[in-house]
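Box 3.1 — From sequence to structure: Photosystem I assembly protein Ycf4
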Amino acid sequence: MEQNNQKIGFGQVLIRRYMIIGERRISNYWWAIFVSVGSLGFLSTGINSYFTTVNIGNQVQSLIDSQSTFIPFFPQGLLMSFYGSLGFLLSLYWWFLIFWNVGGGFNEFNKKDGLIRIFRYGYPGKNRRIDLSYSLKDVEAIKVELKQGLDPQRTIYLRLKGNREIPLTGIGQPLTLKDIEKQASELANFLQVSLEGL
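Predicted structure (token representation):
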């Protein structure tokens, strides 16, 4: 989470905002490009094998690669076309997620107005923007949950009255133990509440 502060007066921070990246991570760009290129390769090979089988694609195949071996359309070319189509649809979905920035947003803690605002982008539709507001008076603690194993999860929660817990860290953003401890302690100090789980 990237942090922005607004200071007023003699250095007192009244508004703290943490940016959440969402789907626009470098790893998502990498995988979207990788799957797009791979799927187009599979799809073009499958389509070329079809045209070569029906004697239309001899000129196309000679333009693509004069030393390539013949791939029969059934079953290899058909399977290559199927996997290429699935990969292309997956990459298209991935590019839409990146474009829409699903999961991106911010957490804003405003002492000036006495509000906490949690904003996230969702999927397109009437609930595209998820905008939640809570009073600072409802905050009981900042809770850190650490799960070890093959898929370690380190999450910071905002614990409100009535045992409601709202996650503040983004999904798919693995933070180091040092970073999560630092963020949680800074937030607990800023809100002047207790820190649980460490």
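Summary of the box: The two ends are 19 Å apart (CA to CA).
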